[in-house]
Each structure stands twice: as structure tokens, then as C-alpha cells.
């Protein structure tokens, strides 16, 4: 039994990876996921769609690899964090998931800040009072959907839900519990007091589990639905950005991963837990390490929005993203002073402002689609620079920048990021993202591998160096980006 299955429940797609130990990826498969935003700031998905995707992906992986499910030694899952999935007493989904990027709970966050001693909460919970807290979303439900709130019997996350569908066992993974605001960071245990402070019903919280621990085993019903073998071990799961960082080789202080998925993340490794309200604090998958990190509400999701909004009905003869990149490459750095704030779902780190809104500022008749696309790409470069400034202020000095996930394949975007950061960015060769880290964690969890072995999957591709000719332009653009948000803050 040398096969390991990794599954990532992502914002824009469900991805599966089948690996053969010690160092071979046999197959990767994916299915798209629909992100719904029925009202401004909302972000919801259907957990049943994640499960349906998984039931299609597993047989495809086995068929493409020419292998049998009985050869799979373990299954690891990862997903966006902390999505909120709710079940009633009969284990039925109560509603669509409320995603980690959802910004509807600004009023509730403000109320919590008025009720809670923020410094005490930060020191105990490891994270500040912000829209990431599960309690803020549950408070919103109590106010706006009281019938749903009254029937909550289970609250957990995206990959917790998938693990339950696979094994019949309910748990909450350690980083979901930490970012949810219900973990005492000093003891690493769930805290009934913190749950009560934030508004999470204690009786609805399943037990906490470490990522590497065996959570349960595939049931007969799950085996019939997915094609997996009954009894296959499933480990506790992993936050997608943490799993991606492990798969990218981020294990040393000074390594910084910039992850360009449905949302854009920035993370680094450290051996100390130092809570800071500007960013999030998570556990690294390697025991004893921590991962200060930032997560934006959007990323590829806004690029996809731009394609739908501006390109409907246009035939580019191929990928619209690639065609728009080509247009942007012909636009000068700074997009002729067109500035975008990428706060289309509010914003999480480092400003923690659920009421922030997406902005395209400076439009004139001289601007075209290429300008808009370039300005969107540049907005995430500015947002990353903001995060890096905060990391430096916290005492984490970046040594090298690694870039991963789908957006990293855009040379135009990565050149923009390198120019704005004024630092080289290292693309990774054939990095499959979070599902690799999830799979490797499962392999360690069943004793089939050790942490060092994942280095066999880490390879470097091209190094993209900054263009010094663009430094002055982007310094001015960065200042304009900050000034624009300061002028508009509080208008919504």
C-alpha cells in the first residue's frame, strides 16, 4: 500500500492528487466549484457540490493512474479556512456554507469589539477580533436567520465536513479551531469560555484534532459513493494555505510563500507563537512550528469576475486570462495611474475591514480593458507589499519569496509582483498546491513517511527579478493605493 490520496476543497475548485511514495505524483484531477455572492459582501458555497466533486474525482484518479483503491494507505484533506458548515440534529445541511471570505458580519464584529477586551482575547485566542471568527458569522445568523441558528447541532469547516462524509466521525481540525477563535493558544485545547465570548454554541463543536492524527476510516457508504476502499484511514485535515506552504518547502524562518489561488495568501514559518492582530496565527503542519500569515478575501475570484463582467461573448481563441495578460503587458507599469482596491468581498488582513469595497479609480477615456486588467493585477501586488511591510514590522524578515498555485503561472502578474516588492520571486516547478501538503501529512500520519521527505517534490523553476526601471512608478502607485483606501474608508 504505497499510494496516498490528497484532496483540496478550494474556493474555486475541488482538486485531487494521487501520489506513490516516496516521490511520484501519479495523477491530478479537479472539478470547478460555484462561489455565490447573492448580496454585497456575501460568499457562499454548497458543501454537497464539494462532495459530488470528490465522488467524481476519486474514480478518475484511479483510472488515470491504473491503480486500485485498495492500494491507498491514507487520505489527507485540506480546504479554505475557516468556512462555516452547519448541520441540524439529523445531520442535514442547514444552509449553504458561509465562506472564510464572507464579509457580511461587520456589525457583529463591531459589537464583539465593544464587548470583548481585545488585548486579552488576542493573547488567549492567538488571533484578534475580526471577520474571520466563526462566532461573528453565527451572530449574524442569530439576527438575520434565527430559524436556522436555532437548529444548529454541528458547526465545523469545509474539510471537516468532507472528513465526516468519508468516515462518519465529526471533528474540527486544529487550525480551523484556532482561526475560529475557540482555541486557547497556550494549551492547544478548545475553550468553552472563548466560545461563549464569541458566540459559538459549545455543544455544537466537535472534538479538536491535530492535522496529522488519524481522524477515522472510510465507511461502507462512503466507499460505495466514491470508489474508495472501506477502512482506508483519513487524517485530520489541513488549512489549504498551510498545506500549500508545506508542499512548497516553507519550513525555515525567512521563507515566504505567496499563494495565488481563489484568494491570495502570504505566509512564513517561525518557531514562536506571537499573536498580532494585523495578521493570523496558525499552526505549521510540522509540530513545534507556527505560521503567521495573511489572507485576502479575494484573488483569482476577482480575476474571474473581471472575465465574466468585461469579456462575456468575446472569443479570444483560447484562455481569456492569457489574452488579457497579453493586453496588460502592452500597458505601462502603473496602468497610467489607474488604481484598483481589490476589496470586492471586504478585506481581511491586514486592514480587517468587512465594509471595504472594490474600487476602480482614475478611469478616463484613454483607458482600455488592458489597463483595467493590469490595474487589478497590480492591486494584489500592492496588497502583498502591505503584508510584507507588516511582517517586517513584526520582526519576520523575508529571505526569499516563493510563489505558487494557479496565478503564479502568469508571467505578467509575477513580474508585477516582483517589481512592486522590489525583490525576486521564485516560481516552483510543478507545484500541485494544497493537495500535495494534505497528502504528505496523511502519509506522515500513518507512519509511511517523515516530514523531510516532502523535499523530493519541491523544485524551483524560473526566478523572476524586479525591473529597476519600474521602482519609482510602483513606489508612487503603492502610496496612491494606501491614500485611496484612507480617503474612502467608512463610506459604506
TrEMBL record:
Keywords: Kinase, Plasmid, Transferase
PANTHER family referenced in this protein's UniProt entry, alphabetically: SUGAR KINASE, XYLULOSE KINASE
Enzyme Commission numbers on file: 2.7.1.17
Name of the protein in its database record: Xylulokinase
Domain of life: Bacteria
Domain Carbohydrate kinase FGGY C-terminal: 283-444
Natural source organism: Salipiger profundus
InterPro entries in the cross-refs: ATPase_NBD, Carb_kinase_FGGY, Carb_kinase_FGGY_CS, FGGY_C, FGGY_Carb_Kinase, FGGY_N
